[in-house]
Specification:
The structure is a single chain. The protein is mainly alpha-helical. It has a domain of 80 residues: Arc Repressor Mutant, subunit A. The chain is 52% helix and 11% strand. The chain is built from four helices and four strands, in the order E-E-H-H-H-E-E-H. It has a two-stranded antiparallel sheet. It has a two-stranded antiparallel ribbon with strand order 3-4. Helix 1 packs across helix 2, helix 1 crosses helix 4 and helix 2 packs across helix 3. It is elongated.
């Protein structure tokens, strides 16, 4: 092992694709939806994530089109002003992805420890 390398770790990325290979949902969209859930606004989420409004909106629209489901409920006017909130479906998607991601990370760490890490000398 080269000098300075003390520990090795496995890293995994997951995302969900449709049958044409286009991304439907992944960690980036998960972060977008969580930011919208926290802030109640696409604009505030974009600012928090250091993304343009257009980029955030484009990813949301792509997910809606590819899943055939509405992801956001847009508040129009009223006392609360504008803003957006996740649909019940989008909330469920976020929670299910969070659990899936956590399980995959845990399982990949376990497999790495058992099958790979101790065999590298």
């Amino acid at each position: 092992m080269p000098e300075g390398t003390k520990s090795l770790f496995i890293r995994s990325k997951i995302w969900i694709e449709n049958d044409t290979g286009k991304v439907v949902f992944g960690l980036g969209r998960f972060k977008i939806f969580e930011a919208i859930q926290r802030s109640g606004s696409i604009q505030a989420a974009a600012k928090e994530l250091k993304m343009s409004y257009r980029a955030v909106w484009g990813r949301i629209k792509a997910t809606e089109e590819r899943m055939g489901k509405q992801m956001l409920i847009r508040n129009v006017g009223g006392a609360s002003g504008g803003g957006s909130r996740l649909t019940p479906f989008a909330k469920s998607l976020v929670e299910q992805f969070k659990q899936l991601h956590k399980n995959i990370l845990t399982q990949s760490d376990d497999l790495f420890e058992k099958k790979f890490k101790n065999k590298i000398k």
